[in-house]
Amino acid sequence: MMKNRGWLVGSILAGSHLLSACSGTPGAGDDGSDNSTDSSTGTGAGPQGVGSSPGVPGDGGGSTATIGGGASVGGSGDPSLCVPGVVPTSQLKRLTNAQYDRTVLTLLGVSALSGAAPSTLLVPDQNGSMSDQMWGAYQSVAEQIAAQVMGDETMKGRYLKCSLAGGASQCLSDTIVEFGRRAYRRPLSTDELARFQKLATEGAGMTENGTPEEVAELLLQVFLISPGFLQREELAEMPSGDGSFALSSHEVAARLSYMLTGTMPDEILSVAADQGALSTPAQILEQAKRLLDTDGAREIVAAYHRNYLAYSPGTTRWDSPARVGKGPTFTLFNKDLVPAIIAETEKLFDAVTFDKLGSFKDLLLTDVGYVTSATAPLYGVTGQFTDSLTEVTLGPDRPGFLTRVAFLSGFSDFDRSSPILRGAFITKQVLGVKMDTPDPAALATPLPEGAELDTNRKQVDAQTAGGPCMECHHGFINPPGFVMEAFDTVGAEQTNERLSGVAIDTQADVTLKTSGSPTPVANPKELMDLIASSVEANRFYAQSLVSSAYERLPNGNDACLVDTLGTKLASGYAIKDLLADLANAESFGLRVQEGN
Q1: Which of 218, 233, 248 is at the close of a domain?
Q2: Residues 220, 330: one domain?
Q3: 3-state SS assignment for residue 406
Q4: Which residues contact 113 (CB under 8 A, 6 or more apart)?
Q5: Within-domain flag for 583
């Protein structure tokens, strides 16, 4: 058994000051800088590293994705004005929990501890300094990962590149250099090598301290609790003018890889960093385009799109268990369909981005859909289908993601469609119109009834007439919602009211921005055409991707890039090209220290 295990860990950490703070200031203010701290392992909790994006529960357009502890990204589209410059960022950004999971999977092949992702044993993502609870969780998870790796020959082969039986001392020394390079995303410094070597030499082969296998396990544990692993460091001191610093090639590689794949750099990118081949925009762009052709990029971009949609699995209107049920007369729909209809929307975004190399306009205008045998009837599509998503053509009356069943059924009520929920989402989450939080009393306003109120539209129009609600609802929210009355509460097409049989009126005057004039719209196709060509919608989509990819709130410095990208999107710029150009931005390889 390993003796004095705690003493050895404490010795290397204390001797190396691995847990001491470096520089910077905790948190981020209202300047749009990173939500990062640089205590021992500062955090930059952001929306990127997902299987699921952070979000807040809410009724439709009121839902917004969040960065860190709760600042909204989307749903509050008051655009920042362009202020040329580089956004101040933390030099030490702690891995998000999702990034942690992806990194230990890439590094060691560890995907689960006791059947769950390693990060489920960590403290949830948060801003601020390292707490005792967080530090204890990191240590416990590192110990469990190290034990799992040393007990599995395949995982051990990803850690140890040699046999301990063939010479433990040399094998451990080689592992420190090789594994340390991968774990830290850069070569270890001379001092770091010496400290890890001290741990190896004081433990290897010494009966009183433990066997070589135990020392190797302890080495791995220490690597996994070291700030060099837990933090994405940007410490290079290479002035580039204007008070900014150029990132080193290794820092660029890490920034690029985590932005586009959510994990550590792969071998090709690491070699480029070691060779100093990430010093020009062209070199960085080449690597960005390569990474965008990997499966990891598709997963991360899916997370970015969840942020854009304000979709957080199980907690927002898209698929909240409390909101997926429909009335008994809607026989084509049941809650078991929800995974398939959500998968369809996610597949649509993925296919437009990667398979069809489409633009933002295509997200709103494509008539391509993805159905199963159970969801096809909701679209009126006939044919032979299975439980798997099959690509179909839905026709001109079903343009884009806002006419898909996931949105239409999620943003509806139990037994009726909801022009308010649909219109609020379109206004806030797609057009980026900033709106105040509704008066809580207004949310309890009952739907009026009367012989003359024989359509859902008339009832909603009367419900929102007068008082503080009227300006927002009648000017912005209700009109696009009324156009979407072409679809019932489960997303099937409708031309007449289900109960009264009265013809549904989908014509409305839609206003796209607070200073704009209304445009007459007759049907969903015309509405999607209008939105797809609007400056506001294209810019807001660009802003959402920039915020997700750069892991920070909209701000004046990034607004310059957002303006450029929004303009290009309106001209048919491919989403995949936009993602690559996020790494080609002039400021991508630069940093400005917080507080400067």
Answers
A1: 233
A2: no
A3: helix
A4: 121, 141, 144, 145, 148
A5: no
Could you give the 3-state DSSP secondary structure of residue 542?
Answer: helix
Q: Which amino acid is at 217?
A: E
- Cα distances from 205 to residues 149, 178, 179, 210, 214, in angstroms, run 20, 21, 20, 7, 10
Residue 148 lies in a domain: yes
Q: How many domains does the chain have?
A: 2
Task: Assess contact for 220 and 566: CB atoms under 8 A.
Answer: no
Phi, psi (degrees; rounded to nearest 5) at 181: -60, -40
Are the CB atoms for 482 and 451 separated by under 8 Å? no
DSSP 124: P
Strand order in the sheet with 244-246: 88-89, 590-593, 244-246, 239-241
Instruction: Map residue 44 onto helix, strand or coil.
Output: strand
Q: What is the C-alpha separation between 33 and 554, in angstroms, rounded?
A: 9
Max intra-chain CA distance, the chain: 91
Q: Which of 233, 263, 288 is the last residue of a domain?
A: 233
Please give the model's pTM, rounded to 2 decimal places. Answer: 0.88
Beta carbons of 542 and 559 less than 8 angstroms apart: no
Residue 424, classed as helix, strand or coil, is helix
Give the CA radius of gyration of the chain. Answer: 27
Q: What angle do CA 578, 579, 585 make, to 5 degrees?
A: 75
CA end-to-end span of the chain: 51
If one counts every other C-beta atom within 10 angstroms of the C-beta of residue 440, the result is: 7
- Domain range enclosing 489: 300-532
Residue 109 lies in a domain: yes
Bridge-based pairing of strands 590-593 and 390-393 is unpaired
DSSP string of 436-463, one letter each residue: PPPPHHHHTPPPP--TT--SHHHHHHHH
Please provide residue 319's backbone torsions phi and psi, each rounded to the nearest 5 degrees. -150, 25
Which residue, 547, 576, 582, is CA-closest to 310?
547
User: How many Cβ atoms are within 10 Å of 425's Cβ, its own excluded?
Assistant: 29
Q: Where are the alpha helices (DSSP H) in 313-404?
A: 338-350, 360-365, 376-379
φ/ψ (deg, to 5) at 369? -130, 170
Specify if 52 maps to a domain.
no
pLDDT by residue for the chain (596 residues), tens digit each?
A: 454 555 455 555 554 434 433 322 223 333 333 433 333 323 233 333 333 333 222 333 333 333 322 223 333 445 689 999 999 888 899 999 999 999 999 999 999 999 999 999 999 998 888 899 999 999 999 999 999 999 999 999 999 989 998 888 899 999 999 999 999 999 999 999 999 999 888 765 554 557 899 999 999 999 999 999 999 999 988 888 778 899 999 999 999 999 999 999 999 999 999 999 999 999 999 999 999 999 999 999 999 999 999 999 999 999 988 888 899 999 999 999 999 999 999 999 999 999 999 999 999 999 999 999 999 999 999 999 999 999 999 999 999 999 999 999 999 999 999 999 999 999 999 999 988 777 776 767 788 889 899 999 999 999 988 777 788 899 899 999 999 999 999 999 999 998 889 999 999 999 998 777 899 999 999 999 999 999 999 999 999 999 999 999 999 999 999 999 999 999 999 999 999 999 999 889 999 876 55
Instruction: Say if residues 438 and 469 touch (Cβ distance below 8 Å).
Output: yes
Q: How far is CA 369 from CA 299, 347, 393, in A?
A: 20, 9, 6
